[in-house]
Write a structure and sequence with these properties.
With 125 residues, the protein is mostly beta strands. The chain is built from 2 helices and 8 strands. The strands form 2 sheets. It has a 4-stranded mixed sheet, with helices on one face.
């Protein structure tokens, strides 16, 4: 195995792109090239997420929940976490502010506009 890129199902691709742009992610791919998007990939450094609309699934994969959010927490390791936190904290819903964990990481958690929880972490020296 080489990597993992989650494909996260959302109701509105355009709103999701706008939210992740606030987190300094860039739109790297989209489908279709023109018109209403059904899929997009957002990338920041070595982290990528794919976003796909629930509607684009049609009747394929009925096992996938058609609801926003869920029990999935995306854990993202980053650098310069305190600077990153300062740049985005006024643009997002903070669930848990910067704190040092018992396992030595400095972390904070936010909720995206689709109800997913993102935890950013750094092993600070």
């Amino acid at each position: 195995m080489k990597s993992i890129t989650p494909n996260i199902f959302v109701k509105n691709i355009d709103e999701t792109i706008a939210f992740y742009e606030q987190l300094e992610f860039k739109l790297s791919m989209k489908v279709p090239d023109e018109g209403s998007l059904v899929w997009a990939m957002m990338t920041k450094d070595n982290v990528s997420f794919m976003f796909q609309t629930f509607d684009s699934l049609g009747n394929d994969l009925p096992e996938i929940s058609r609801q926003n959010g869920g029990s999935l927490l995306l854990y993202i390791q980053t650098k310069e976490i305190r600077r990153y936190y300062d740049r985005i904290k006024s643009k997002v819903t903070i669930l848990k502010g910067l704190e040092k964990t018992f396992y030595g990481a400095t972390e904070f958690s936010i909720q995206d506009i689709n109800g997913y929880v993102l935890t950013f972490a750094e092993q600070e020296d």
